[in-house]
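With this grant's support, we have paired protein sequences with backbone structure tokens. One protein thus recorded is set out beneath this paragraph:

_____
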Amino acid sequence: MRRTLALSLALASALSSACAVSSAHDDPETDAASNVGGALSAPDGAAILALVNYPGTDLAVLDRGAGLDARAAKAIVAARNGKDGVSPSADDAHFASIAALDAVAYVGDAAFTKLRIYAATHPAPAGETVEGVAFTGWESVAVAFGVNHADLAQLDKLMDARAAKALVDHRPYTTVTQMGPQSYVGGAALGALRKSAPSFWSAMHAAPPGCIATFDAAVRPHLADVLFLSESDREIQIVSYPGAGTTAPTAASVLALVGAPAGSTAQLRDVGNYYVDLEPSSGTADPGAAAAIQAAVTAQLHDVVYVAIFAPKGSIDQALVGVYLVGRTTCGDLVGLTSIAVET
């Protein structure tokens, strides 16, 4: 009897220890290092760090987009933004390593798994060096927005008038690299634009342009009621590219705008097929949500295209296809929907 009792106690103790080990990385408050974080490849780790350090990766992106636990999303943003709670700003504390990110409260295996998938399909904008002037990803985005939206007089105050005119004459731009070849645009002009990046960023986020806000208001209330049908149904999100709708979108232009990894490819698909793949998100979802979304796209956008973006050949994310339905607004912006299709 004593032997049986001792064996039972030992077994219970062993099971308890095993459970503690197996759940350590699922406990959002544990101090244990994440197994998933520690096993990330160098490219995956770099993509995750670029994503969480990018100031455009806000609470909504991490919580609703990437699907992180709300507490993990809040903790990541708070740690990055510093005491002033604002990014970009002087006190930003960027994550220098996966270990530093792993040390944030509520970040563990589940968070790293979701961040790896999201960073692969929604990579942060890459930095650029043009005419010897280095731009971080957010600076490139901000400068492209600023040059696309500023009038000639505003740009003239920043640089040689001839450079300002050349930039205005050849816009819109999706990258700073596209500005480099323009006449009179050299290191001095690009340096001035980089210095103005914070003000451009603030202007870009002060308030969404009218057409983007109108589209958002018409579509967002219906998004919770639909999923994009594929081998694994996914949520749909709104995407917008201010100033990028002055010309009709193409597969190549959308590929450049979304900042897909090098080696990614894009394919045009029939627009009607995008709507066919919209399905109710649950048995209680509004059955008219998909029709309402289609009506908003038809009424507010023109030159609409459906673009599928494939990961580089050999990528472990080859089955994850970014699907974009975007069109031009009357304000000169590019707006639409995006999701992920799992295609094997």
